[in-house]
Structure formats: C-alpha cells, structure tokens
Amino acid sequence: MKKNLSEDFSMEDSLEQIIQEKNLVYRPTRLMTGATLSYCPGCGHGTIHRLIMEVVEEMGIQAETIGVSPVGCAVLAYDFMDVDFTEAAHGRAPAVATGIKRLWPDKYVFTYQGDGDLAAIGTAETIHACNRGEQICIFFVNNGIYGMTGGQMAPTTLEGMVSSTTPYGRNVEQMGPPLKITELVAQLAGTYYVSRQSIHKAATVRKAKKAIRKAFEVQKEKKGMAFVEFVSNCNSGWKMTPNEANQWMEDHMFPFYPLGDIKVDGKLVKNVIQDL
C-alpha cells in the first residue's frame, strides 16, 4: 500500500532541508544599502553598483574604500553603496579622488562617472589624472547621452544618433566625431589597466566584475591608474523599451565602442590608434 508523502514529511520540513548554507547559490552583497534605486527601469547603474560592492566585500576592504560620486544620474550613488563617499563638482571627481588618495594613500579610492561628467565637463581632470598615474580607479558609464538633464548630445553620442539637442542626428561636420576617451587614456603612460565592458547579459556581467576586481587589485599593488568603461543603455533617453535599448546598443554602440581589455599590465593589447 502506497504512503502519502505528507505522512513522512511536511512542506516545512522539505524547505528546511533545502534552505541550508551548503545549498546556497547566491547571496546579495550586504554592501548595498537596500535603499530604493532612483534609476529608470532597465538602467545599468544598479547592476554596476552591485558589482563594485560585491568586489569590495569579497576583498574585505569596506572600511578602507572611499567613492567619489559625480553630477549626473549617479549623483545619489552614496545612498546605495555602503562605503564612505564624497560628492564632487561636475567633472571634478578625478581631482577630488587624487586629493583623497594622496592624503590617505592606503585607502581604496574610486570615482563613478557618466560620459557627460567624465568626457565633457571633466575632460581635463580625467586626462591629467590618468597621465599622472594617480593610484585610483575610475569607473566610467557610457550611455551616449546626458541622461539626467534630458538626453542632450554628449561627446560619446554616435554619428547620426538622435538626442534632444540633435533631433536630426549628430552631424560630425558640425559637431565633430564621437570621442573615444577610453582609447585616449589607454595611450598615456600613467594608465596601467584600461578595459571596456558591458552589463546587459549574464556573461558580460561576469566579465565586468572581473574587470572591477582587476582595477582594485591594480590599486592595491600601487601600479598606476585603473580605468574601466561600461557601455550601457539609457532606454528613457533613447526613447526605447529596455529590450529595444539593449538590442540597439549591441547593433550600434558595440561596433564603435568594442568590448574587452585595451591595456593590461601597462601594455596595450589593442591597436588603439587604428580604433580611434
């Protein structure tokens, strides 16, 4: 005679057998504060925040880490990442980070910046901090437009790309070509590790996390500047659904901003002159 399974164990007993430390597959990092993210649905900022905090937690450096937030969509980054933070004036994050690192050379200092903040208003600070080889990490999110202020053209906006200030598309004869600032800084003697990643799929998320870990390891070893770009979408600014924005990014952004390491251990691994 067959027994009813409920006679041997209840659903509660079954869950207790499953929910055990040895069966744990994933645990969210405790270094995200739990505050509700201010970003649009489909935005990549939240994932990048999480990856940075996962690496900080895994390296055991929470108490030694200081972030510098930008002016832009990530201006409230300090609300979401549970490490010490300071705010910089628009574009000045590398200069502020330089001062912090020189005052406290044993701290892990990083900036978190968008393309308008880093590649337009902060171009001088970015270039010179990289050229000096400041012992910091720069995490650069490139979505091709000014996201927070209404979707205006940025230095990274693609040729022909529509924005609120280029309703007929970017005209390179009038506005110049898009700026590949990551390839530019890779050519400077002070940069030790330069990489471009994305976070729109599980596989690219894993690669992005490795790049973040590498950047912090470079800082730990005092090798020079570590610069990691993340090509991301801005579905609100691009006037697309998240899925449409990711597909558009693959079709248009990646051919111009190819993913992968550009400079490793102080040596170029790509012909950046050809890529400019």
Features:
single chain, 10 strands, 276 residues, Rossmann fold, globular, alpha/beta, 12 helices
- Report the major sheet: 8 strands, mixed
Low-confidence stretches are: none
Counted beta strands: 10
> In which range does the helix fraction lie?
25-40%
Shape: globular
CATH topology: Rossmann fold
Structural class: alpha/beta
The proportion of strand residues reads 15-25%
CATH class: Alpha Beta
Q: Provide the residue-averaged pLDDT.
A: 93
Order of helices and strands: HHHEEHEHHEEEHHEHEHHEEH
- In which order are the strands of the major sheet placed? 2-1-3-4-8-7-9-10
Distance between the termini: 76 Å
CATH architecture: 3-Layer(aba) Sandwich
> What count of helical segments does DSSP give?
12
Name of the CATH superfamily: Thiamin diphosphate (ThDP)-binding fold, Pyr/PP domains
Count up the domains: 1
